[in-house]
Amino acid sequence: MPIPAAPKPKILIPEKVSPDGLALLQDRFEVHEKKGLSAEELLNIIGEYEALIVRSETKVTAELLSVAKKLKVVARAGVGVDNVDVESATKHGIIVVNSPSGNINAAAEHTIALLMAVARNIGDAAASVKDGKWERSRLTGVEAKGKTLGIIGLGKVGLTVARIANGLGMRLIGYDPYANPNLTSAASVILKNSLAEVLKEADFLTLHTPLIASTKGMIGAAELATMRPTARILNVARGGMIDETALVEALDAGTIAGAGIDVFTSEPPQTDSTAAKLIAHPKVVATPHLGASTKEAQENVSIDVCEQVVSILSGELPRSAVNAPIILPEEYRTLQPFVTLLEKMGSLYTQHYSSHLTASGASSKSFRTTFDITYEGALAELKTTKPLFAALVKGLLTPFTSSDGLNINIVNATLLAKERGILINEQRSRENVDDKPYSSFVTLRARASRGTSQARTDVSRSSSPSAARSLKPQEHEDQVIQGFVSGNKPFISRLDKFKGEFVPRGTLLICRNFDSPGKIGLVGSLLGKAGVNIRFMNVAPLHEDVDIDEGVEDVDSSEALMILGVDKPVRQETVKQLISEEGVLEASVVTL
Ligand SMILES: NC(=O)C1=CN([C@@H]2O[C@H](COP(=O)(O)OP(=O)(O)OC[C@H]3O[C@@H](n4cnc5c(N)ncnc54)[C@H](O)[C@@H]3O)[C@@H](O)[C@H]2O)C=CC1
Ligand SMILES: O=C(O)C(=O)COP(=O)(O)O
Questions:
Q1: What are the D-isomer specific 2-hydroxyacid dehydrogenase NAD-binding domain coordinates in residue numbering (predicted)?
Q2: Is 267 a catalytic residue?
Q3: Measured in Å, how far apart are the chain's first and last C-alpha atoms?
Q4: CB neighbours (10 Å) of residue 32?
Q5: Which of 393, 463, 477, 562 has fewest C-beta within 10 Å?
Q6: Predicted local confidence at residue 327, as pLDDT
Q7: Cβ neighbours for 525, distance < 8 A, ≥ 6 positions apart
Q8: For the chain, which residues score pLDDT lower than 50?
Q9: Given ligand 1 and candidates 15, 82, 109, 209, which is best to mutate, with the most ligand atoms within 8 Å of its CB?
Q10: What pLDDT does residue 551 have?
């Protein structure tokens, strides 16, 4: 009978997002574009979806996220994430990504469009001439050239505005406590020490900060009162940063000459609200949040976030996560295969040490919670190892938690490890690895805690006298997994006391045995009877460091580890049968 195809993960898009990015999703995912959903309708259906792609209209609240049990990613097809409860997403392990630069040019050009429209009364003039009037002297404007433009927030949009305005011959001043002085001076902006200094000099004032606690209401009645009566204000950032009531009053009183506003405290504004009064004001040119609404910007942001959704749903790192460690693109390329390696090492550790059966037939419980992770070679030079750390935690915890559906990812892994009492010390070794066949490698060492009760079980039924010797409780020994990356592919190079290279992928049967003739045939025939095909096999001898490093005196030098890649899960009875065979000491099945 043909095996039914696994259902495709579902993606919900409740707003208009450009089809250019969506084309990347259609084949692999079930994409539902549902515009105009009410908050309640969204709450009712969000539980089915693994990804949610929004713009600025959808409110991604704590309540919504708490019922979004399958959700892995909220993708904001734009810059501002003030409509997403990022803190709540982090708690739930949901990654929030955005497109940090896809629409900045559009936003900057729109700012300049509003600046010109306000300077030359374009809105008023267009309405007047359509109305059949010809009011040339009433509609006389001012020039931008030679005027002072005050820019609050010198990030991506603010600096782009500066560059264009410089071309218009404007004098540029700005305030941003975190501005990069090299970038601002390259854009000809004179940095001021306070908002107040900018306000009193500006002929045009433009805001380009995010809406956060410190910028909410930053331009109120008091600030407007310090500005020139001929000054004009532009806001293409976020409503809420300007007190709308105070602005209407200043325009009415003639203490501010005009305003170009694209964003409002509530969108769309309620009839009779202050925002509606602002829109209707004759000295205001208003647009309905059009800053990012160009064909080009919408293509950019759509492709940007859809690519990231594909990455996340495929278990890879996104480029621009808002609530995860920030990685530079070149670091990202270096880190990605190691992220996979670390996750595999963690998962191998948990599955191998928590599930292996010993020759006594009992499942041993030697899983530990204190680890040292050592990065050697080029990896030791990395600026950040945060994604590697998080990937290890994910690998360690996922085998324990996947059944209850807990979503572990780079966002919440650290917190979850702490909650579960897992302690990981990160170390960098600067030792020369020139003699090694690879430039970086990683060692995971679960430290032995003396006096622990988590000993491996004795052999009571082992038929070999030396088995009893080698299966003495090993709580005094460290458990070690070592790995490296070659050709972008992760490899394990050491497991416990044994060295042997294998690819940590698929289902593996790991079997410790005496290195005596016939073992390979024995395992092969048992698996064959169980209908399991062997894909590859690797025999790992004892690692050369064992005696020296770990003070292991009792190991039988004829022990070896067999690692078999198999085509399907091996049943527990088969594993039990295997360890009851003479000379087979221990076996575990892991799926990586
Ligand atoms: N209307 C629209 O359609 C669009 C609006 N936007 C909005 O534009 C804003 C800016 O976006 P980007 O330039 O990409 O962000 P960005 O993060 O590159 O720059 C923001 C800058 O504001 C500065 N800042 C923060 N607090 C400040 C304060 N209290 N005083 C002065 N400066 C402060 C930061 O240091 C940073 O340099 C965001 O709010 C974004 O949502 C962006 C694109 C389109
Ligand atoms: O990117 C931003 O911050 C914007 O404000 C753009 O909003 P929009 O995607 O056009 O609803």
A1: 112-291
A2: yes
A3: 27
A4: 13
A5: 463
A6: 56
A7: none
A8: 363-365, 402-405, 450-473, 548-555
A9: 209
A10: 43
417, containing H or E segment: helix 413-419
Angle between helices 104-119 and 122-130 (to 10 degrees): 70
* Fold that domain 326-496 belongs to in CATH: 60s Ribosomal Protein L30; Chain: A; (3.30.1330)
C-alpha neighbours within 13 Å on the C-beta side of residue 518: 4
Side-by-side strand order, sheet with 423-429: 423-429, 370-377, 440-446, 479-486, 489-495, 498-502
Q: What is the pLDDT, as a whole number, of residue 377? A: 85
Domain 10-101+297-313: assigned CATH number:
3.40.50.720
Lookup: tokens for 268: 């769309």
Asked whether this chain's domains 104-286 and 326-496 adopt the same fold, the reply is no
Beta partners for residue 371, in sequence order: 424, 446
- Annotate 323-357 with b (16+ C-beta within 10 A) or e (fewer): bbbebeeeebeebbbbbbbbbbbbbbbbbbbbbbb
Give the type of residue at 432: N
Write down the pLDDT at residue 199. 98
Q: Which residues line ligand 2 (CB under 6 A)?
A: 55-56, 77-80, 103, 289, 291-293
Residue 436 has what pLDDT?
A: 64
Burial of 245 (0-12, 13-18, 19+ CB in 10 A): middle
| 500 φ/ψ angles, rounded to the nearest 5 degrees | 180, 135
Q: What is the DSSP letter of 359?
A: T
pLDDT at 484: 93
Distance 291 CA to ligand 2 centre (A): 7
Q: Which residues of 1-12 are buried (b: 16+ CB within 10 A; e: fewer)?
A: eeeeeeeebbbb
Helix (H, G, I), strand (E, B) or coil at 271: coil
Domain boundaries, the chain: 10-101+297-313, 104-286, 326-496, 503-592
Q: How confident is the model at residue 226, as a pLDDT?
A: 98
Residue 331: the pLDDT is 65
CB atoms within 10 A of CB 156: 18
